């Protein structure tokens, strides 16, 4: 085989590996971001829940 053709094959393989690495990095970032957005950020009342007022003071 021609040396130029051999070097092009290796260049294309290296480029494909870089593309795969970049794609993996992007997917990892997206997964971590999605997971962090789904985690609860605080404790306390939950938005959208109905608050039931119970007269705790008069119960004492």
Structure description:
This protein starts with a helix and ends with a helix. Helices cover 67% and strands 0% of the residues. 0% of the residues are buried. The chain has 60 residues and is mostly helical. The chain has 2 helices and no strands.
Mean pLDDT: 79
Instruction: Give the oligomeric state of the chains in this entry, treating copies of one chain as homo and distinct chains as hetero.
Output: single chain
- The share of residues in extended strands comes to under 5%
Q: Tell me the series of helices and strands, N- to C-terminal.
A: HH
Cα shape? rod-shaped
Low-confidence stretches: none
Q: How much is the radius of gyration in Å?
A: 28 Å
- State the separation between the terminal residues, measured CA to CA: 93 Å
SSE-based structural type: mainly alpha
Q: How does the major sheet shape up?
A: none
Q: Treating each run of at least 4 consecutive H or I residues as one helix, how many helices?
A: 2
What proportion of the residues is helical, as a percent range?
Answer: 55-70%
In terms of topology, how is this protein built?
Elements: H1 3-38, H2 56-59
